[in-house]
């Protein structure tokens, strides 16, 4: 027996540390008990903050900087707050309407200001690429989309589906570069679709060309007659609870020689990750798949290439979002969030600060983004 097999064998019986997936029943139950304690403490700290406890950002940052490396390196199983985080759910995506209400259909003036709303780069709610020298948020998002174009090998004339298209930023930019590409965007957020419909009437927008089609609807019910050359999905699979069903669906939309490109937040720990805080206040039913989750699926679609993008890129992106959020309070605070604004502001600042530190911690090597190029299995 090698040393690593021996260590794994021992780890099975020790609660809390290491890989939850290999624990003996007793160690598994003890670990779930410890998770309950972590959940309670986390929520107590977060809710004290959002209900008004005065804590300087520096203290909050230090708290995350201290805790997160320990969780990532030694106690990853404590980062799965619910058992559903560890396994596939019944539906392809759970609680979609609640997610729209709490997150994506919030006042768009707030989201657009935070994410940046340019002439070509519309609001984009996913990682920008900074490691190639981008000087600002817009450049980082352009370089990120250029990276996708290259890895997915987009060719002029391709018919492409954007699964969870946000505000249409990626289609708009790609249509601007390729005069014969066709795009279909799918999104459940009514408010984001309204933004897109407005752009579809604007002659200066590439979305106004007849090469772009919008479908407002749920990923769960998505159905297309057309088969696509390429399918991309950026920042959406954190809302997918069942990879098996999702890949089956995507495969049914894909031409025989087509390619799928999935870009997601990922964690390089043995299990998937989520938090009681984000589940309640930010992304209901959201989860971050571990880096092996997508490639371990070999039914319907299989991964032929994969890349890990260092979390530093997302930490930088989120730092810009927080800055935009803070610097535009005069407008942002006048909007209706269905709750006291001071509380809303704290909910969002807690989320943004936490994520900035999460992606930066351990030199960005644990929590980053994964990109997966897939073809028919
Ligand atoms: C983080 S945003 C990313 C948007 C876009 N891909 C980008 O990079 O800017 C996730 C997107 O997925 C959409 N989405 C989430 N769950 C969905 C569902 N069940 N059906 C359709 N769209 C969904 C959201 O409305 C949102 O537009």
Please characterize this protein's 3D structure:
The model has no long low-confidence stretch (mean pLDDT 96). The protein folds into 2 domains: 3-84; 89-376, Rossmann fold. The protein contains 13 helices and 8 strands. The protein is α/β, with parallel strands linked by helices and 377 residues long. Strands 1, 2, 3, 4, 5, 6, 7 and 8 form an 8-stranded mixed beta sheet that branches. It has helices at residues 3-11, 25-50, 57-74, 96-104, 108-115, 137-152, 169-177, 190-200, 243-252, 276-281, 312-327, 329-332, 341-360; strands at residues 159-163, 182-187, 212-216, 228-234, 254-267, 289-290, 301-309, 367-376. β5 (254-267), α10 (276-281) and β6 form a beta-alpha-beta unit. Bound molecules: S-adenosylmethionine (SAM). S-adenosylmethionine binds at residues 93, 96, 99, 104, 124-126, 164-166, 169, 186-189, 192, 218-219, 234-236, 239.
Write the SSE topology.
Layout lengths: L2 H9 L13 H26 L6 H18 L21 H9 L3 H8 L21 H16 L6 E5 L5 H9 L4 E6 L2 H11 L11 E5 L11 E7 L8 H10 L1 E14 L8 H6 L7 E2 L10 E9 L2 H16 L1 H4 L8 H20 L6 E10 L1
Helix pairs in contact: 3-13, 5-11, 11-13
This protein binds S-adenosylmethionine (SAM).
């Amino acid at each position: 027996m090698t040393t690593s097999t021996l260590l794994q064998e021992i780890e099975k019986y020790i609660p809390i540390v290491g890989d939850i997936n290999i624990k003996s029943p007793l160690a598994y139950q003890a670990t779930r008990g410890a998770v309950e304690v972590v959940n309670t403490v986390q929520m107590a700290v977060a809710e004290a903050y959002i209900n008004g406890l005065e804590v300087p950002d520096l203290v909050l940052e230090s708290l995350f900087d201290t805790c997160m490396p320990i969780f990532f390196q030694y106690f990853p199983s404590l980062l799965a707050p619910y058992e559903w985080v560890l396994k596939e759910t019944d539906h392809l995506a759970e609680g979609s309407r609640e997610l729209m209400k709490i997150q994506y259909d919030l006042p768009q003036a707030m989201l657009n200001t935070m994410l940046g709303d340019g002439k070509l780069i519309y609001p984009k709610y996913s990682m920008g690429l900074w490691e190639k020298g981008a000087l600002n948020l817009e450049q980082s998002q352009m370089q990120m989309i250029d990276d996708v174009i290259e890895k997915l090998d987009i060719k002029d004339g391709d018919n492409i589906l954007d699964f969870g298209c946000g505000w249409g930023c990626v289609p708009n930019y790609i249509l601007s570069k390729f005069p014969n590409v066709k795009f279909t965007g799918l999104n459940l957020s009514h408010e984001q679709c309204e933004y897109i419909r407005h752009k579809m009437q604007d002659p200066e927008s590439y979305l106004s060309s007849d090469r772009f089609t919008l479908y407002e609807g749920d990923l769960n019910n998505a159905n297309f007659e057309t088969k696509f050359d390429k399918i991309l999905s950026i920042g959406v699979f954190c809302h997918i609870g069942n990879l098996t069903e999702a890949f089956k669906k995507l495969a049914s939309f894909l031409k025989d020689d087509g390619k799928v490109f999935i870009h997601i937040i990922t964690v390089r720990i043995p299990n998937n990750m989520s938090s009681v805080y984000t589940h309640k206040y930010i992304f209901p039913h959201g989860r971050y798949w571990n880096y092996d989750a997508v490639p371990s699926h070999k039914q319907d679609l299989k991964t032929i290439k994969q890349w890990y993008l260092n979390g530093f890129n997302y930490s930088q992106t989120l730092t810009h979002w927080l800055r935009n959020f803070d610097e535009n309070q005069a407008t942002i605070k006048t909007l209706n969030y269905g709750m006291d604004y001071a509380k809303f502001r704290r909910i969002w600042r807690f989320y943004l600060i936490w994520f900035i530190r999460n992606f930066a911690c351990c030199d960005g090597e644990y929590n980053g983004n994964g990109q997966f190029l897939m073809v028919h299995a």
